[in-house]
Design goal:
Blueprint lengths: L2 H6 L4 E7 L5 E5 L7 H27 L5 H26 L1
């Protein structure tokens, strides 16, 4: 099934929370009413990413006042990565 025929049937390509083998964004086309194994794996991974975001936010709140410059740089890098994942998930759910 091509992306064009999938869209005609109402099945939009879903961005996956991991890159393809070439390092670029990967997609799956699936029926939301009957998710397959790839969609279910993506759901599990997205749930884990959101949980990690919540944990990281808790650490950030604790460290914000007491961390040194190196720790803050590391924290900002991790928060940036996590926020990127969270926004990607939110954009998929919103559409």
């Amino acid at each position: 099934m091509t992306c064009e025929s999938a869209s005609e049937e109402g099945h939009e390509p879903r961005p996956l929370p991991w890159p393809g083998s070439d390092g670029k964004r990967a997609y799956v086309i699936a029926d939301p009413a009957r998710p397959g194994p790839v969609s279910r794996r993506a759901d599990v991974m997205e749930a884990a990413q959101l949980e990690m975001a919540a944990v990281l936010l808790g650490h950030a709140r604790q460290l914000a006042d007491e961390a040194g410059p190196a720790e803050l740089r590391y924290l900002v890098a991790q928060l940036t990565r996590t926020l990127t994942d969270t926004l990607r998930i939110a954009q998929r759910v919103k559409s």
